[in-house]
Structure formats: structure tokens, C-alpha cells
Amino acid sequence: MKQFEFIVQDAMGIHARPAADMAAAARKFTSLILLKKEEMEADLKNPLAIMRLAVKQEERVTITATGNDENQAIEQLKDLMVNIGLSKNRLIP
User: Fold this and answer.
1) Distance (Å, whole) CA 78 – CA 74
2) How many Å apart are CA 10 and CA 67, to the nearest integer?
3) Number of other CB atoms surrounding residue 60 within 10 Å
4) Does the annotation mark 15 as catalytic?
5) Which backbone phi and psi does 14 adopt, to 5 degrees?
6) Which of 2, 15, 60, 90 is catalytic?
7) What is the pLDDT of residue 89?
8) What is the pTM of this model?
């Protein structure tokens, strides 16, 4: 299992567009990929599940990947979070 945390920087939190982008990226991998907020989690391959978490600006979330391509999935998702403006380079080691 690989994971990373970040603090959401987008003023609207994780809304429809980033949720769709995240799901599209996650579907490229066979690993189980989850988005976690506090005690709740969602399948990152499902944009509606992501939106149900209602992640707001300045909230800390974790993305985990478990499977054969977990390393590639995590690296690409880290880049995506920065590219779509959710983390603005504020990944938590």
C-alpha cells in the first residue's frame, strides 16, 4: 500500500470537475485507490463517491493505492493534485 496526504487548496473544495479528473486518472490503474477524509472513504474511480465526502478547502485528505501498479498510481495522482490546483504543491510527506 502506498499513500500520500494533502490539504485541499481549491476555494470550492473537491467539486464536480476535479472529482471527474481524479476518477478518470484513477481508472487507468488496476489498484484499489481510495480517497479518505477523517473516518470516511470513497473509491477514487467513482466521481459521485468522491463528491459525497464533501471535502472543503483546507481539509486534509489521504489517497491510498493498493495493488500491482500502486507506485505508478500514487506518482501520477500526486502530479494531478498539483496540476488541477487541489494541492498547490502542499503535499504532506
Assistant:
1) 6
2) 29
3) 14
4) yes
5) -95, 100
6) 15
7) 65
8) 0.92
